[in-house]
Q: What sequence folds into this?
């Protein structure tokens, strides 16, 4: 059983995994930081009480400020979406490499099982031959 794990660990392209790991960590940190900043901005964001009581020019200015803030937030969300896509893409590539390695291991295991079965049949035939004499 331990031999299978060692074989599977040898077949994993560790150099590629280690090369991709820092970018995954950095991407997740950036994503986490952006989400934390956005949540902090939402909880302490400027409210709009008293907008109905102000003059039309003040209302227009307040709406423009809110529109600019929403545009910035939309740009941030777009950036987060791109970085999330990059992380998911990287993970899917690693997953496909793992699947390929597992397919090779399964094929090797099947060959080994057939070889063991043939050897067991030959050993049984040899045992019958030795016992019959």
A:
């Amino acid at each position: 059983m331990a031999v299978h794990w060692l074989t599977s660990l040898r077949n994993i392209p560790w150099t590629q995994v280690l090369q991709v790991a820092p970018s995954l960590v950095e991407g997740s940190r950036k994503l986490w930081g952006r989400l934390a900043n956005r949540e902090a901005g939402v909880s302490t964001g400027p409210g709009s009480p008293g907008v109905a009581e102000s003059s039309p020019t003040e209302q227009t200015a307040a709406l423009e400020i809110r529109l600019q803030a929403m545009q910035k937030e939309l740009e941030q969300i777009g950036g987060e979406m791109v970085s999330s896509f990059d992380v998911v893409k990287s993970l899917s590539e690693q997953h496909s490499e793992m699947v390929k390695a597992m397919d090779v291991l399964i094929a090797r295991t099947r060959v080994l099982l057939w070889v063991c079965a043939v050897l067991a049949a030959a050993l049984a035939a040899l045992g019958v031959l030795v016992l019959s004499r």
About this structure: The chain has a mean pLDDT of 80. The chain is about 90% helix and 0% strand. Helices lie at 2-11, 14-43, 56-132. The radius of gyration is 31 Å.
